[in-house]
Amino acid sequence: MRSQTRRPPGRPRRTLPVAAFAAAVSLLVTSCGGAGQAAPRAGGDATEAPRESLARFYTQELIWRSCAPGDWGGSTPAPSAEAGGFECAKLTVPLDYADPSGPTIEVALNRLPATDESRRIGALFTNPGGPGGSGIDFAFDAKGFFTERVRERYDIVGMDPRGIGESSPVECLLGDPFFKADDAGHTERRAELFAAGCAKKSGKVLPHVGTDNTARDLDVARAALHQDKLHYYGISYGTLLGQFYAQQFPKKTGRMVLDSVVDPTHWPGDATSDANGYENGLTVMVQTCVDGGRCPMGDTRAAVMAKLDDLLAKLDKKELPAGDGPDVSKFEVLSLLQGATYNEGAWPQVYKALAAAFKGDGKGFRAAVYGPEDDAEDGAEGAAGGKSEEFALSGSYEAVACLHLAAEDRTTAAAREAGQEARKVAPHFSEGVEAQRMACADWPAPSLPAADRAVRARGTPPILLVNNTYDGATSVAWARGVHGQLEDSMLATNTSGGHGFYPMGDCTHKVVDDFLLNRTRPEPGKVCHDRNKALIPSPTPTPKAR
């Protein structure tokens, strides 16, 4: 679970909420149980038939045009060859579903049509998580993500949820006072200024950017695409969106796969769960290096962790030199480590960067965290003539996540208490918990009625839950918790780290594909053993006979 908030060029962030750490490692990463609580209203009573006042939205006809990555917002259709077969459209939905005759917003959609029209099942709606991830961007990568079996029989559909990307994005106007508070580590002041900047730029949409309304948008999109059922694949936060949809529209729920499962009773309200998950992910990452032999970081896990703690202690006093680029901060080291728990394929690069850092060389971290385009030194603090300059940064993560915190958890005192609790279980990743909670203390939109409650989704067909056993971002314990909360679900796991079950290998592909294509349920307790190919050593060549 990660924020999409990024600073403008020349202003590298030094302190961020724990959920935002992974945003700084986008070059490495390809993409969050309790039971026995009352089922949520999910922001409104579950209903199958739309109200008459919503009929114009449900019966709208979409205008599709050829499009390609980077061309989505243009008005000129892209050539078919350039588009690679993709089409884009805009869906009109109410800003406020309680006032459907009031203002409207547009939600961006794209799709890759099924390649075998004669055997087409329908549309497969997708969401890549975040919250704040672009569904449009995710769908544009469908050819590299979904197997040919799935793409033959489904249109792959992406949607930028309201408040994100091309769908009335939440933006926040922030100036020098915010950046100075951020650099100084003044989390309370930073949160106040951030919330005020978001309200200034996006105040009209903030009360309506929530998972409950995005689920309603999904149902309008389902109807606009002439689908009787919503077939769905969601990952990370996308699994929570799927749960909300199933709760509100159980009879419209089709074949639903929830990958890397978020438990609404733990995210984001559990102060220790997120940070502890990343702590465990770091442990697995280090142990994997040691077990593989010739680990560049050290011979034992204890030795590597001791070196890491020594490095972090030094970074508290002085940043790490990185050649011609800016020095590397403690925050940036933790950013890379946390982000790497999302993707086992990044681990070999992290091993090398960390081994070099132990020897005083930060160039590996600098390249991995920022990349060449972000290597500029801090720029001017304001516009020419000394006038303060404001930047529009994304507030999409906070706009969604803060609404999932119960009202009593959105106070300054609760934020400080959350930080203290996290420090007890996650020494390396507890620093951001307080900042994350603090960002929600002043957030100018109320919590959802369903915040921190379990979802039952009574009356749906079976829902498939899948999770990696050592996922640091969405603990397998969350998947097991949701498995117990949903009325009808099944759970399959994969013995690996990394965030995302489906892309791991042949077994994980088969589990998901068989369910989407044939409604095949995995056997109870199904376990795959796929690992990222980057961690599988190349076979040692057989010596030639002399």
From TrEMBL:
This protein's UniProt keywords: Hydrolase, Signal
Limits of the AB hydrolase-1 domain: 127-268
Keyword Oxidoreductase: no
Comp. bias intervals (Basic and acidic residues): 524-533
A Pfam family this chain is assigned to: Abhydrolase_1
Region listing for Disordered, in residue ranges: 524-546
Signal peptide: 1-38
Record-level Gene Ontology MF annotations: hydrolase activity
Coiled coil regions in record: none
Peptidase S33 tripeptidyl aminopeptidase-like C-terminal domain location: 427-528
Family: Belongs to the peptidase S33 family.
Alphabetical list of PANTHER family matching this protein: 2-SUCCINYL-6-HYDROXY-2,4-CYCLOHEXADIENE-1-CARBOXYLATE SYNTHASE, TRIPEPTIDYL AMINOPEPTIDASE
Protein name, entry field: Alpha/beta hydrolase
Biological source species: Streptomyces coryli
